[in-house]
Amino acid sequence: MRKITLANGKMIEVECLSCALSGGLIQPFGDVIVETEHFHAHQDVAYPIKGLIILASKRHFKCLDKMTQVEKIV
């Protein structure tokens, strides 16, 4: 588990921040921008910089070449 301090000062403890966001356990500031079967786009919850968007995969992989063909296309 990791401890992360959000931009609003709240500290959370999660195993994976992206999983917590895409699973709805944490609500990103400004809400979800777009969500697909494989990805979740939102504003950074720790550093909400105007125009900075985080595109998080809903599946864990360590390198982009580990993406499936469907993930690469969508």
Provide tags for this entry.
HIT family, subunit A, two-stranded antiparallel ribbon, 5 strands, alpha+beta, 74 residues
In short:
The protein has one domain: HIT family, subunit A. It has 2 helices and 5 strands. The protein has helices spanning 17-22, 69-73; strands spanning 2-5, 11-14, 32-35, 39-43, 53-57.
Q: What amount of the residues lies in strands?
A: 25-35%
Question: Regarding CATH, which class?
Answer: Alpha Beta
Rounded to the nearest angstrom, the radius of gyration is 13 Å
Poorly predicted tracts of residues: none
What is the fold named in CATH at topology level? HIT family, subunit A
Order of helices and strands: EEHEEEH
Tally of helical segments: 2
Structural class: alpha+beta
Query: CATH-wise, what's the superfamily?
Result: HIT-like
Tell me about the largest β-sheet. Answer: 3 strands, antiparallel
Level of helix content? 10-25%
| Number of structural units classed as domains | 1
N- to C-terminal distance: 30 Å
Mean pLDDT: 89
Query: What is the architecture at the second tier of CATH?
Result: 2-Layer Sandwich
Q: Biggest sheet: strands side by side, in what order?
A: 3-4-5
Shape: globular
Q: How many beta-strand runs? A: 5
